[in-house]
Amino acid sequence: MKGHEGWDDYAAYYDWENAQTVGRRDIAFWERMAAPVDGPILELGCGTGRVAIPLAKAGATVVGIDRSASMLDRGRIKVRRARVGSRVQLIRGDIRHLPFPDRSFPLVMAPYGILQSLLDEQLLSATLKDVRRVLTRDGIFGMELVADLPAWDEYSNRVTLRSLRGPHGKPIRLVESVKQDRRGHITRFEQEFVEGRGKSATRKKFSLAFRTLNVPQMVQRLEKAGLEVTALLGDYQGGPWDLRAEVWIILARRG
User: What is the spatial distance between Cα 84 and Cα 54, in angstroms, rounded to a whole number?
Assistant: First the structure.
């Protein structure tokens, strides 16, 4: 399984689930990162615009790239509704091969675990190499790793979220199974969204997988790609990272 698989199917439920999990708790951090930037900002794995749209509302110009056409279709609708079309451009593409000229962006962002969708070293290495290429001189790369993925207990067919009103206006529940490949650092989610009740209920199944390197391991990969790590943060207020931190944010610079 490749890390980009599953996201087209997940798109219809992405905003609903994320509103109940990560929500907006990281948005103020990315707004502070974007505020002093003079020039366009690149967001890797922009999805439906969860981060790009608030940044644009705050005055930033954001180019978002994502491999999922379904995610981007929903994102473009949200961009129009938010009336930020002049400051947000959403592009379908592969983050390993960024379709931009060298030194195009003073800030590249990889929010909330997007790089964990790269399931092997080759994919990660290619992405970091291209990130460095598109950064301006002294440009900043900011990335977050979802810290708790490797610590999730394995379980099968557990109802982890439910609501009386889902993305299509019906009662919904998420039935989920989690498996851990400790040797490969892979966390796999088998998800089933059940909408409605009884025999009329509809079911949508798909899988998502994530590979989690710890902070020192990711620092090593960034340095190998030619990026200089400038800060390790353990919260969204800019506090320092340590082994107990619940938030893993790494900032690096192109020299």
Answer: 9
